[in-house]
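Lecture notes, part 5. Sequence design as translation. It can be helpful to think of inverse folding as translation between two languages: the language of shapes and the language of residues. The source text, in structure tokens, appears below.
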């Protein structure tokens, strides 16, 4: 079972920049300058209550810090849905639970720990929500950690503090922590409550290195399926990094924003293949009229040569009630993915070890394909989004959680790519 987090329908209309994908229509509600980030590759973290000794102590925002917000400094909240639509407030996002040992699939040995979803490794007691999400970096010879956060928990820079009702995307810059060219695969994502996504990109190549909408490990619990043991993603020494972090505060208290992403190396001598990004936004021009109930799509992309889809998720906004995806082969549509929870999108692996839940639409149970998902030349991937507009305004493809709409398929392919039919060319700078 996946742990769900409830999102308060506060009618937030402050979405900005790049929720897993963006276009030139997205207008930022706040303008933020790039913030330099330090990559960590040692295993030291502060003791409880320590200040300025955290791995983020070398981070210096270029934007002039604003006054620290108070808990009562709440912005106006337009388009507030009816009170009966508001679930009970809870923290977000929640971490994936660790399967019982008896349920853990067997895999080959790896340089990283397997079978445990790491949590609460740093002994933080900052007074902010989410201390338990801090994890230690890998040993220097095995990987590095990307860390985004304040240098002083008692007086954090304003760039890391999210006011009640606020939604924002901050762009950070960094230099990767590897001092020589490496290949990596296993990644661990941990974000304090309020985080919606973190996307990490090598700006020298435009390649997405990682991205997550929830706290998770990729692959799940560090367990690599036999057919994927040769996968490695290349990264040059001290590569320039861009980090987009989107957050939304649906509570009545300020939230601290902080992110830890661990990158674990693989032996380059054993790397035989890499991944390509599956990323297709469907239709930039799609709109949803006020209070309308519509299905966007199906959208399609084409497979030109054999390969595998090894993981995917659907990226949507708050008015979405269902994201579905299929593999289409010779007219046969096989459902591979279905999710009903926009705030914590289902993330599936398609491997020989994957035993995914069966999707049950009538019960709103998320699920999808189990086992290897092979792709052949002539196949297509198709997806659609069921949108129920709760707002009095038309939804468009913009970066606003409650007053915008997106229907984006995102995943990792091996051996092939899926070509967009609308002529869309992926621009990583707009992601």
């Amino acid at each position: 079972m996946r742990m769900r987090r409830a999102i308060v329908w506060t009618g937030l209309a402050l979405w900005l920049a790049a929720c897993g994908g963006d276009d030139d229509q997205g207008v930022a509600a706040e303008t933020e300058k790039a913030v330099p980030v330090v990559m960590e590759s040692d295993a030291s973290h502060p003791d409880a209550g320590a200040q300025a000794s955290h791995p983020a102590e070398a981070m210096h925002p270029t934007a002039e810090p604003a006054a620290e917000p108070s808990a009562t400094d709440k912005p106006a909240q337009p388009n507030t849905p009816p009170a009966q639509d508001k679930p009970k407030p809870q923290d977000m996002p929640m971490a994936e639970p660790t399967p019982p040992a008896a349920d853990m699939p067997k895999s080959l040995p790896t340089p990283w720990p397997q079978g445990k979803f790491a949590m609460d490794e740093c002994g933080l007691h900052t007074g902010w929500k989410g201390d338990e999400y801090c994890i230690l970096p890998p040993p220097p010879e095995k990987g590095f950690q990307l860390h985004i956060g304040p240098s002083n928990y008692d007086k954090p820079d304003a760039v890391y503090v999210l006011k009640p009702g606020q939604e924002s995307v901050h762009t950070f810059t960094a230099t990767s922590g590897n001092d020589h060219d490496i290949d990596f695969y296993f990644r661990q994502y941990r974000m304090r409550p309020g985080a919606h996504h973190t996307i990490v990109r090598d700006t020298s190549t435009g390649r997405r290195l990682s991205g997550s909408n929830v706290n998770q490990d990729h692959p799940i619990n560090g367990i690599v399926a036999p057919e994927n043991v040769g996968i490695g993603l290349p990264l040059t020494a001290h590569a320039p990094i861009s980090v987009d972090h989107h957050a939304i505060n649906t509570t009545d208290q300020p939230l601290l924003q902080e992110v830890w992403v661990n990158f674990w190396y693989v032996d380059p001598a054993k790397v035989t293949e890499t991944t390509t990004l599956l990323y297709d936004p469907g239709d930039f021009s799609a709109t949803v009229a006020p209070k309308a109930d519509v299905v966007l799509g199906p959208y399609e992309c084409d497979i030109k040569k054999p390969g595998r889809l090894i993981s995917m998720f659907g990226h949507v906004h708050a008015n979405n009630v269902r994201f579905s995806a299929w593999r289409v082969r010779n007219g046969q549509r096989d459902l591979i993915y279905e999710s009903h929870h926009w705030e914590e999108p289902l993330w599936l692996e398609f491997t020989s070890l994957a035993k995914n839940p069966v999707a049950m639409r009538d019960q709103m149970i998320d699920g999808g394909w189990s086992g290897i998902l092979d792709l052949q030349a002539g196949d297509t991937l198709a997806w659609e989004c069921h949108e129920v507009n709760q707002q009095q305004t038309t939804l468009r493809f913009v970066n606003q959680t409650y007053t915008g709409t997106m229907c984006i398929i995102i995943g990792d392919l091996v051996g092939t790519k899926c070509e967009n039919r609308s002529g869309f060319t992926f621009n990583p700078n707009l992601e």
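The translated text above is only one of many valid answers, since several sequences can fold into similar shapes. DSSP finds no helices and 24 strands in the chain.
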